[in-house]
Amino acid sequence: GEIRTVSSVSNNTTHSPGDPYIVTATLSGSLSSGQGVYLIYSDDSWNTSSVVEMTGSTTSYSASIPVDVNVAQASISYYIFTSGSGLTISAGDSDFFTINSNTNSGNNYSYDVVDTTAPVITVEGDNPATVELGATYTDAGATADGGETVTTSGTVDTSTVGTYTITYSATDAAGNTGTATRTVNVVDTTAPVITVEGDNPA
Predict the structure, then answer these.
(1) Is the pTM of this model over 0.70?
(2) 67 SS3 class
């Protein structure tokens, strides 16, 4: 039957790590018997590549680029082509077929795997914390779930009753910053000590 061409392909230019990347394709018509539609992708600028047969019916097909390829900071390239079905296709052969049959009109697609998840910061110790007026305040600190360095800002003036905020922040390798805060209350719960002057009893 007539060799079908690829009319359109889905493409999001960014993707989150840890999830498969779903590619959908629309063909110029229904595949004839013995034909198939394929997704080829590479994560190393086409030094190596993998081919996946897409599934679907009529003119709509889909396939996924697997989770283990979609690691943070990766750049993935891919395209779709049609061919005979049931074939073991090498990257080189698929390129040859696509170029000569022009089933994808020369269209290539790409996306970057971008980590947009900020570190989660856990505040250690009491929050809110309470410290007595005039006492020494020692902050219990905080940790980040990815092991990032946590920076602390803010001060507690234990000579003045009031409410203070300590802010913790951590930035991961992708530049995402997470923050958390602790409230510290400086309180005066010590009653005055009264000294009786003179004789007592008088």
Answers:
(1) no
(2) helix
Closest C-alpha to 142, from 133, 151, 134: 151
Q: 174's torsion region: left (phi>0), alpha (psi -120 to 50) or beta?
A: alpha
Paired strand residues for 167: 153, 181
Looking at the DSSP bridge assignments, the partners of residue 64 are: 22
| Distance (Å, whole) CA 48 – CA 22 | 20
Amino acid at 144: A
Residues facing 53 on adjacent strands: 38
Q: What span, in angstroms and rounded, lies between the C-alpha atoms of 99 and 65?
A: 22
**What are the start-end ranges of the H helices in the chain?**
91-101
Cα(196)–Cα(156) distance, integer angstroms: 35
How confident is the model over 37-96, as pLDDT tens digits? Answer: 889 999 999 899 898 889 999 999 999 999 999 998 899 999 988 876 555 555 556 555
**Which residues face 110 on adjacent strands?**
77
